[in-house]
Design goal:
about 325 residues, alpha/beta, TIM Barrel, 2 domains, binds flavin mononucleotide, DUS-like_FMN-bd, tRNA dihydrouridine synthase activity
Amino acid sequence: MIYSLAPMEGITGHAFRRVHAECFGALDRYYTPFLAPPRVGSSFGGKAFKEIDPANNEGLNVIPQLLTKNAEEFVWATKLLADMGYREVNLNLGCPSGTVVSKGKGSGFLRNLDELEVFLRDVCERSPIPVSVKTRLGLEDDAEYERILDLYRSLPLAELIVHPRVQKDRYTGSPRQGRYGDTLARAPFPVAYNGDIFVPEDASALCAAYPATRHVMLGRGLLANPALVRMLAGGVPATASELKQFHDKLFHAYVDEIGGNAVFRMKEWWFYAKCALADPMAVHRAVRKVRKINEYEVAVEKVFNTQSLAAVARFSG
Ligand SMILES: Cc1cc2nc3c(=O)[nH]c(=O)nc-3n(C[C@H](O)[C@H](O)[C@H](O)COP(=O)(O)O)c2cc1C
């Protein structure tokens, strides 16, 4: 089975990938949070460059993800990525955010299938590296997916990662796994599943229902339980000292990268990671109002000294 880390803007960036791999072993693949391609003729700069800088991703199998509806910029970006040594690029057709959708990008691109078809045919032909897609089922209603899947099936995609929700679901309700099953049965290219795999039993149930499953992408489940992939392979849950060591390394990596703003990055991580501890609400209260590094260190010390581990580290939103 292939296990990959989901792209999560502001969370699963290069520091997280590196520290997680160091503490819990590398996953098979990592997708970068979405990157906007640079203008044709320009390079990736600033934060986007750091994300794909080979020096920040050494030893990890990283697939950059692009968010755009501009074919020229997409193809230009794939040339830059190919020159940096990347062997695949992923297109984001799932982002549900209102500002992205209103510009016709992310899941908003699924509104205009004629335009999407022209875009995908063009970029699949001209990109020097294979193109994979991460998709939702549509915007309003999963019946939209019939036509969307027909379109994908006519293209030479490297892989299709299906998060079987529609845009208006955001992250609520249950993923429509049946739509993933249809894709698996009908697609001429490899298919991956993503959505609500929070404990090993979720993955077992998916594989029992769809035995041809070969790639599962993990997001919130792995943030709430950093040992999730180890457990999926039959290993043990994270110990308290492993969790603390992971926390400390992650915090220091963020401090090195962004100084005092590391506190805010860690608070986003705690939104998920609090589920690894017995009383998630107490963790939330402890870190909620903290702003400064020294306050943060005191709050977290208290969390680790007073909280035991949850019986089951399971994300709950
Ligand atoms: C805070 C946040 C940021 C996300 N950023 C991205 C992104 O940059 N690109 C993307 O394709 N999906 C993004 N997603 C969606 C995740 O990759 C994934 O599809 C979603 O969390 C469902 O999987 P899960 O149930 O395993 O978490 C994001 C989700 C969240 C909650």
